[in-house]
Fold each of these.
Amino acid sequence: MLLVGTALLGAYFFLAAFSQAPLNPEKVRYSGTVEEILSPYLSQDWQLFAPDPLADDRGILAQAFCADGETTAFYDVTTPYIRRTQNDRFFPSRMSRLVSTGLQSLQNTDPVLNRLRRWETEQKKPVLPPLPYEERSRDDTVRLLSRYALTQMPGVCEGRPQKIQVRVYVHELRPWSGRDDPAAKAKEPVHVEDLGWRKVSDLR
Amino acid sequence: MKRLWASLDRLSVAPAAVTGVCGTRALLGFTGFMFYAGQYSDRRYLFGPDGVYPWRDFVQGLHDNETFSLLSLSASGLWFEIVFHMGLLAALAVMLGLGGRAVLVLHWALLWSVFQRQPLILDGGDNLAYLVLPMLLLTRCYDRFAVSFGLVRRWAPRVPGTLRAVTPALHNLGVAAIAAQICLVYVVSGLCKVQGRVWQDGTALFYVLRIPEFEWPGVSRLVYENDLLVVAGTYAATLFMVYFPLGVLVPRLRSWAAVGSIGLHVSIALLMGLTGFALTMVACDLVFLSRGLDNAVRAARRAGDRVRRAAERQLPWLSRPVGSITAGDAADRVTGGPDIERTGSTSVSEQAGRSPARTV
């Protein structure tokens, strides 16, 4: 009994460890099979802030297009929940993760494709365009972020907005080398990307 | 070879780390309960049928992943409330040790259902919880820190002899699985960190602690503005994770490795606000601290006895046995232990009569 159990346990941990290994030729070949066995009940991810942790302040703003043809200013729909998390140290609400994880999944893609595109960029070759499943996944995330933004602006356009647009911002915090340089704080760049307008009727 | 068979024999008959694994169960129950409690005011928005994650995408996701969620059985608000509150109560029952393995299975199924409804808010702690809860089913995780109504003692004779005979072996397998799982978490995380540039540079804490979502205003700054703390903390965390399995393999270092891990995760809980993740890791570390937990329980019991005796000297009426319970009984209700099975139904006055000096 103990031997059989140990063998099963060994097989599980072998597959689990394999699924967590860095990209290598064997992983490229067998990762699909291993994922099929582990997913969904035994799937796992233990990178935990590694290898490259987030190093910037990211969030979203949102604006609405009203029935009278006016476009509102951008509203900050990220900071209120960040403040709430900061003020509650013991099991804080996870509302802020809707935005942070949503933004991460906008950029997540297959590690092999990631490496290929990086190589193409370095070699100054045409970069592989997003594959259909990547486009679908991005579209789902944009829809989710837009729906979230819509719910965070209940009074906008007197409660009857026609369309919503999300703006992603990435505020680069000064690097370690500039930690003692007051001028570096003033020079922290902010990058923005406007996602496509979404009809409110499609979001509800 | 003889030694190997002797070890296998021992593992087949003597359950290891019982107190530790009971602590794991209780703490995972608490963490689960706090997951529900922490999201309580936002529950409809996060998990409800009209929540932020569209119902259509939720159902499609279940289909794509070939999995289930009890929430998908009905799109009614009432059903959602029933499932959510059942999850809350099941987690509480697991924490208190009520209902045994059946409730542990129910807790896992409800937690999984809620996780599937809103995958965006999950973290490594949730991932570890849904892996470790089924492993706990193999173990004797209800022997300690559990409220007992004597049902186990009453039903124990009905359990088939074969199953009773393999119980220690299954328990030890479960404990080994939890231990191996936590080692895998540490090694993978540690080795991934070793490959990262800012972890190599010793500056990762500087970057992570400034992210607004993980920042503790007024406190994080004290750490990330101190160069020595940043470098020492970054390297210590990485080295600790990589070498954790070696630490627990050496019996003399085992407790220290577990205490170090608990220290690391308490820091993460406080500094980064990742309480659920940190406590789930601590819960799994407890399998390495079984002896320490036993000692702590004994010390607490002795301290309680001393306090009680002192109180009795000052207030003699406290020692009257009528309508009271014995000190030993009270302690066993908290710690579990073999006594609870032997004397659980003994009347209060009988126990008081047998040991009047220990009455409260």
Note: The beta strands of chain A are 56-66, 75-76, 161-172, 190-194, 198-199.
Amino acid sequence: MTPQAPKHDHASAPLPTRALTLRAQNPQPRWRRFASNFVALMLIWLILTDFRLDALVFGIPAVFAGSALVFLTPSTPRWRLSPYGAGGFVIWFAIQSVRGAVDVAWRAFSPALPLQPGFGCYSPALPEGAPRILFVNTITLLPGTLSAEISGSDVIVHMLDKSADLQADLRALELRVAALFGLSPDTEVSG
Amino acid sequence: MLEIIATAFIATGAVFFIAGTVGLLRFPDIYCRLHALTKADGLGLALIALGLALMANSFGEVFRILLIWFFVAVASATGSHLIASHARLVDRVHENDPDRERQT
């Protein structure tokens, strides 16, 4: 599941869109999403208030209103999270965000101010919805990249150092997000 | 012992907050400044949250600290994206308007 291919392969081969959308499932019925949101939000509320029963006077209306938002938003495809992919993603995400912060802190403190800012473009093959939102949000925490704009299916990325290999970095991220949602294109990763 | 480790985490977090602020002041344009704020402050908050979680007395406290970190992280990534995309929109408007000086 971990991409071990040499670096140039990441840059050259775009992910096949069909392989990625294969396991997307039909939208969940709204009332089931309402019920699952209600349970999750209620759990958060109870832990936040240390299980105080009198706080439920505010908690129940708030949780009800929060869960009812599913009736106002368009239904999205249901995604299966892969536990193996999630574990890998969390560890990788932690390492990358430390690297990103150390990199930008070094640039900020360095007297010479080593910056070569510029814009780049990346076209993710990830499907719409949660996978793409997570992808765009995570770009900002990678070393030297910031998601600046979404233009159609492309993401415009601002780079602190425009000589960095944007395609390889973002393809690595894309594969991680795909693995997290159980979308790994088997044919691509095995090679 | 636990206090020493927690203090080390919090102190390191503070260094990253300072780095983010130095970057905000020194970097040349709005995009570079967003890099400094989202990345350095994001790790700074994570380290401070980790240090505080080590000293927390109950599971509820740890959970609340985790929740704070999570929502700040999501809001910071989304907010910086929105600021950057608005800045690009403003840049494009100014490019088409030769009389106006660019302000960044």
Note: Chain B is about 85% helix and 0% strand.
